[in-house]
Write a structure and sequence with these properties.
Two copies of one chain form a homodimer. Chain A is α+β, with helices and mostly antiparallel strands. Chain A is about 15% helix and about 35% strand. Chain A has helices at about 5-20, 120, 185-190, 200-205, 225-240, 350-355, 405-410, 420-430, 435-440, and strands spanning about 20-25, 35, 40-45, 50-60, 65-75, 80-90, 90-100, 110, 115, 145-150, 160-170, 180-185, 240-245, 255, 260-265, 270-280, 285-295, 300-305, 310-320, 330, 335, 360-370, 380-385, 400-405. In chain A, strand 2 (about 35) and strand 3 (about 40-45) form a beta hairpin. In chain A, helix 4 (about 200-205) crosses helix 8 (about 420-430). The longest helix of chain A is centred in the middle third of the chain and has 14 residues, at about 225-240. The first copy, chain A, starts with 5 loop residues before the first helix and ends with a helix. The interface between A and B is medium-sized, with 35 and 35 residues.
């Protein structure tokens, strides 16, 4: 790794030493500040704020209909995820923060300049003010590079979204000890390090190309025009149906709420647990909360290949339980393989076997990152981009579509087009790995 | 009017003669095929299909909160509004249809090639098949020019949207007597004729610039960049809240359901009425349905002016009762002035007085069109585009933003950005009236 990261690691180690914290798994029925509704229908904060865990009955319809029930996190408020950037010579530098989240594998990860729920910044829990927040609320100093409402994990969140922002300022701002300025090259290198750059950073960084991109640029060597891609997306939205209704937690088919946790007797998907958290470096020093703990490591992958010397990725029009508007553009594969282990091949997610066969594909990105540590406990995903060469042709199933990296990035600007898994994968390709592939061939 | 329209008018008169129909106002409680729920909570079709009239309690919050209740049309299914186009020499020709809708001022208006609810094309009411539908469902012949999910009147429809499509075919298709091929120039001329080109045609025609536009084009003389406009829109969505819940029709504050109709004793907004319809040229020969009848003619207007020799229009970030995602981009003014007649100036819609003062503004577009005649009875709006010169500066209230016509058109491609009133106004400017203004100055 050619970037000099030693000063970063010095700072990061010190953050870990300076900040003491401790996480205990606790019973959902005994979480301070939280209550299970008397009829067992939902778990809510006593203030009515933050978020709740509810039961959801889901029915989707496309060619055939599927229905299932699951617990889901309901957090209707829109938070802000914002990164401040400034130009230093020919490079951009980013103001990042070391931040503890209880679900993080390494507890402290690299987060955006500002990562604040609305409860945070309106001071619901009477914590300290959020540094640099003034750069992300009107009328703000600096100029906006990227500003979009983006969805989060649709399998775990009901219609949740955050405002993703990148704001450029003329000069480096002075920052406290939990903050650090990193160059683009340093960030790109750190994005290849496991469980370090948190999900909130990765989704915001998917807007990074807009720092350098013209308002509109065309991509004439792409397989499909912008109009074709929009039509494919519109058609997928029209073809799918997504009907949802809230149902009590205690009677979700396939799930069991034993008082302490909500789990699936068949061991699939995830468990809802409670956590008691003690920290010295957060807005408040102690708190408790429910968290979602997946049963295994996820796989989030783009299948890619060259067409006309341009690297294309296979995008999936995907419906999840919490998707705000029926369908969003997702990676080729996004699943927890352990949930499908004993199923016949036909019931396994399409393309999963292909991306896991690393001997037959050319691996461009392969790094393990954490999902959001504020809600998800030890939720890791293996982020993969693989070049499958000519083993897949231009014709693909109707819920899939070939796009260039630039085309998918273009949709990121428009709210609720590209899902969080795909945005995080785009960030992992920020160092231009796809373009290099195209040039090398 | 230089375009030769005599053959069009010959055809159109004949359509009127050949098609017999009759509309009677009827009591909501006695509509064949419809029932009022036993508790008076909603009016539904006995088949469970088509649409229902429900009560809605609405609370919006921005700087201050507003709440109100109203009847609203709930029609969750996505219909298709599609126009077939072909290139003839240097011009484009459009396949249009003469279609009767019970609410139309002149009963027959010019509609898209295909105008079909999902109930229509899945044959719920056992009518005849929809001609040309095969061009708008996958895998279709022809190439897609424009394909987007678009909202309809948010004040009257709950989250209703239709798929707007323009499909190009290589040659003129043979068409039955209710269809006609019209050139772009003829359509542009007819868009200046009152109550002739129906709303469904106008919203689809807002995608017309994509026939000739590059995938992405820039507009360097605009006041704001694309990034700025997206940020303004994101901020408006984040700032507004829109909470809704269904409430019984019979107990809507401010409304009275007398069994025959639902009306406001203060005479504002609209009335829900019943209609019995008999026609010889529709999928079925007789039917009854509820309809919404506004209390007066609406005003739908863009305030515009030149900046840097480029014509800009003042776009309003607007929340309506039925808006799918909190806010869409609307015209500067959209209201029924009669609803605000006796109110003090401060409670009248902003810019309404300005656009109605035709002596102080330069009128570029001024034409009366009908709203959708399938749901709205005699709903007319005066579509206005006025050049106000320098009477308004670059600084405007935060819910308003200056854009070029091309910039607003760019957002039309992306679903649920531009509302139906603004899209219909864009269609009325399809003849380039804004560019001519810029050149003349």
């Amino acid at each position: 790794m050619s970037e000099n990261l030693s000063s970063f690691y010095d700072w990061f180690s010190e953050r870990n030493i300076k900040n003491d914290y401790h996480i205990d798994i606790a019973s959902l029925s005994a979480l301070e500040g939280w209550k299970v509704d008397s009829d067992g229908s939902a778990i809510r904060h006593r203030s009515g704020k933050f978020f709740s865990i509810e039961g959801l009955s889901v029915e989707t319809q496309e060619m055939e209909s599927h229905s299932w029930s699951q617990p889901i996190i309901n957090q209707p408020e829109i938070g802000i995820l914002g990164i401040i950037v400034t130009k230093v010579g020919d490079s951009y530098h980013f103001l990042m923060q070391a931040k503890m989240e209880p679900g993080n594998i390494n507890l402290i990860q690299l987060s955006p300049t500002v990562q604040a729920t609305r409860s945070n910044y309106t001071r619901v829990h009477r914590g300290s003010a959020v540094p640099f927040l003034e750069h992300f609320v009107a009328a703000r100093p600096g100029s906006v590079v990227f500003d979009s409402l983006q969805s989060e994990q649709g399998s775990w969140f009901l219609g949740k979204r955050n405002r993703n922002m990148i704001v450029e300022v003329p000069d480096r701002l002075p920052a406290g000890e939990d903050f650090i300025w990193l160059s683009f090259e340093q960030i790109a290198a750190l994005l290849r390090v496991p469980n370090l750059v948190n999900m909130d950073s990765r989704t915001v960084l998917s807007g990074l190309p807009f720092l350098a991109m013209d308002d509109n640029s065309t991509d004439s060597s792409a397989v499909h025009s912008l109009g074709d891609l929009l039509s494919w997306f519109t058609e997928a939205k029209s073809r799918h149906r997504l009907d949802r209704r809230t149902v009590p937690l205690h009677s979700l088919p396939g799930w069991e709420f034993d008082g302490d946790k909500i789990l699936r007797p068949d061991g699939r998907h995830f468990t809802v647990i409670g956590a008691d958290v003690a920290a010295t470096n957060r807005e408040v020093a102690h708190w408790s909360q429910p968290m979602l703990r997946p049963i295994g490591r996820g796989v989030i992958a783009f299948v890619g290949r060259l067409f006309h010397d341009e690297f294309h990725i296979l995008v999936h029009a995907r419906t999840e339980a919490g998707t705000a508007d029926v369908v969003e553009m997702g990676p080729t594969v996004a699943c927890i393989p352990a949930s499908y282990e004993n199923l016949p091949r036909a019931e396994r997610p399409p393309f999963l076997d292909l991306v896991e066969q690393s001997d037959t594909v050319d691996v461009l990105v392969d790094v393990v990152h954490s999902e959001e540590g504020g809600r998800f406990f030890h939720a890791e995903s293996r982020y993969l981009v693989v070049d499958v060469g000519e083993s897949i042709g231009q014709q693909v199933p109707e819920n899939y579509c070939w796009m260039t990296v630039e085309q998918l990035t273009g949709f990121v600007r428009y709210s609720n087009h590209v899902n969080v898994a795909a945005r995080c994968l785009l960030s992992c390709m920020a160092d231009g790995v796809a373009e290099r592939t195209a040039v090398t061939r």
